[in-house]
Write a structure and sequence with these properties.
Layout lengths: L1 H10 L7 E5 L6 H4 L7 E5 L6 H6 L9 E5 L3 E2 L4 H11 L3 E9 L16 H8 L2 H4 L20 E3 L6 E5 H7 L11 H11 L3 E12 L10 H18 L6 H27 L1
Parallel strand pairs: 1-2, 5-8
Antiparallel strand pairs: 3-7, 4-8, 5-7, 6-8
Length: 273
């Protein structure tokens, strides 16, 4: 998080900004480490891990800025990043949120920088890895918007919660994250409601951040599967509640995907031993 904050302060040199850090009851000694450091940062040290959505929402009533950036602590942003995003908002009045091009620690592009909504057919194609066979297909690779060029600005369905900047106007209409989500899915849900509120979301490749994935959780562990597939169930129950035929089909599919993931993880771990 220290490197992240350093990069944020450098990126704020041309703008007036408030910086909030909400700590979800970490046990790594962060509170003692940051005492007396980053005097321009508002640290909020939680006593309980309340989840990503609730932690972010806890500071919304303190925010005064015209634009709000939600940012993971395992990220590094360049000095021009915030200026580019804010300039884009000023010239695109239909924009409610922007995301940027993300790469991992080795410089490889992260596909979750731009995604489609997890519709039943889109989720089916991803579940059976058809998006990998047809990487640039508008149909089979819709989950990662594979048909949209990595280096071209485009409106997209879903932006990553690791870096998502919203206009205050849009944020007020959607009233923040849905706190039913503890981890995963809250960014998809928020983007869905931004669309319902009449705003567009844009993917901007004109600036690139580093997302050191894995600092918060490991996809190989059981907690990841439990939270991820649990979040997908919340999304279905919330947004497909009136579709009495499709809803049980989707929930069954999610449960099946969970068990496939669990069995696959078990055999991988058994093989490693």
């Amino acid at each position: 998080m220290e490197r992240c904050l350093i990069s944020i302060e450098k990126a704020c040199k041309n703008i007036t900004a408030e910086i909030f850090v909400v700590d979800n009851a970490s046990t790594d000694g962060s509170e003692n480490f940051f005492k007396g450091r980053f005097n321009n940062v508002n640290f909020i040290w939680g006593k309980d891990n309340v989840g990503f959505a609730k932690a972010n929402n806890s500071v919304l009533n303190k925010i005064k800025g015209e634009y709000i950036l939600f940012l993971n602590p395992d990220t590094l942003i360049p000095e021009d990043c915030l200026d580019i995003c804010i300039d884009f908002f000023s010239t695109n009045t239909d924009c409610g949120a922007v995301g940027v091009r993300m790469v991992d620690g080795n410089g490889f592009f992260l596909k979750e920088s731009k995604r489609g909504f997890p519709s039943p057919i889109t989720s089916f194609y991803k579940m059976f890895a058809l998006h990998r066979l047809f990487k640039n297909s508008k149909i089979f690779s819709k989950y990662y918007e594979g048909h949209l060029p990595e280096n071209k600005t485009n409106p997209v369905d879903v932006l990553s919660g690791a870096f998502m900047m919203l206009s205050n106007e849009a944020l007020k209409k959607v009233i923040g994250f849905d706190e039913d989500y503890f981890m995963y899915g809250e960014d998809i849900d928020l983007c869905y409601r931004i669309s319902q509120a009449g705003f567009k979301k844009y993917y901007l490749p004109t600036t690139t951040i580093v997302h050191l994935k894995g600092a918060s959780t490991e996809k190989s562990n059981s907690n990841y599967s439990r939270h991820f597939f649990g979040a997908m169930k919340i999304f279905v129950r919330k947004h497909y509640s009136r579709n009495y035929l499709l809803k049980p089909f989707l929930l069954t599919g999610i449960e099946l995907a969970f068990w496939i993931s669990t069995i696959k993880r078990y055999f991988i771990h058994s093989h490693k031993k």
